[in-house]
Amino acid sequence: MISWRKHYKRSLIAIGLLLSATASVHAQSGDPKNGEKLFKANCTACHALDKQMIGPALGGVVERLQTEQNLGEDWLHKWIKDNKALRESGDKYAIEVYEKFNKVEMTAFPNLSDTDINDILAYTTNPPAPEPAAEAASDENTIAAIEKERKESANSKILLISLLAIAGLLLWLLLRLRQLVKLNQTEELTELNATRVQSFGELYQKYNLVGKALLGLLAVFALYGVWNFLMGIGVYKGYKPEQPIYFSHKIHAGDNKIDCQMCHSSAKYGKVSEIPSVNVCMNCHRSISEYNGKYMEPGKDKAFYDGEIQKIYQAAGWDPATQSYTGKTQPIEWVRIHNMPDFVYFNHAQHVVAGEQSIISAHNKKNPNDQIDVVCKACHGKVDTMNVVAMANDFTMGWCIDCHRTTEVDMNNGYNQAYFKNLHDKLKKQYPKSEGKITVDAIGGLECGKCHY
Known about the structure:
By secondary structure, the chain is an all-alpha fold. The chain is built from 21 helices and two strands. It has helices spanning about 1-30, 30-40, 60-70, 75-90, 90-100, 115-125, 140-185, 185-195, 200-205, 210-230, 250-255, 260-265, 280-285, 300-315, 350-355, 355-365, 375-380, 395-405, 415-420, 425-430, 450, and strands at about 320, 325.
């Protein structure tokens, strides 16, 4: 009897090991590389391999499920394809998982084939080693750049010392020559020197008209300088302040192709393009807690970007460990870059909606080597290439007027067709040389009241 029990127990252990090994073999039968692509496309919004997010950590989920619940990959296939149907069938563990994660229903993936799911499970079991980032040598490049800068600095110092030495030598030679001239000066030369102009006053009296002309010319140059200085007040092209959270538009708008209006939504529907709230950031960063992109700005590493994401969590009061809001929020004090004077009226919606195609076309004609595809870039520059956003244009009155004089009104736009239905023919007669092309200045684009209260 005892022998039979021992034999039965050993058989159960063997069966358990066999099932575990079978699960591992099945998971390994998939393609981890393809599984990684599928996992990133379908699962990363809620799951990670090594930590709990909205859903549980999925690293080693096949073996863990087999060991803890005695469930195989077929259960995972059913859960992934339609977890709701699995719960409704009365599956105990499916209901338990649903209850454990706050009754957040997982998205069903009926479009994934059995092969796709096997590949995903293979990735969770044996994830391939991460490929080295294209910019992995950024640290080496930075070190090389620092060494190069040191060498250039040393060379500059040597050059400066050499120039000072040469200047000293020339001064010494000049003094020696002056002494020689005095020694060799004759009485005739002394008399000649007595007739020469000895002061600026004497020089001015001798060349009175020339002096007045020079003073007038200097006055003109001075006025021109003052005028340029006054015209430069409030013009901050190239201004790029340091922000409280490092936000790279190159990574978001460039590498990840996030549309401008996803964050600056009111640019299309309102006068002002607002600064997005932290809730907009959390739409994505609730499930993106670390930076895994290949691009690294020189001098910055993964730890730097991860730290900036943590600043967003602090501002939003988000606890990534519990996947919940704490209620302790902190305002983000962004530094404004573009700021119109109070006496200037500018409506973003008017330009983004009614003037979109016209502005893009006018910019591309005027700048054949700087083509744009989004209307925002006409004023704000190619933001999708900027790590730190800088003011790309002057934003002066003259700059705006020049745009109004060269930008054609899009008469194919549905709004303009209705609004300028009777005005279009009149404008053609009024501006016969325009060949039917009407610019913004012809429809009131230069009227003071359009932009000034």
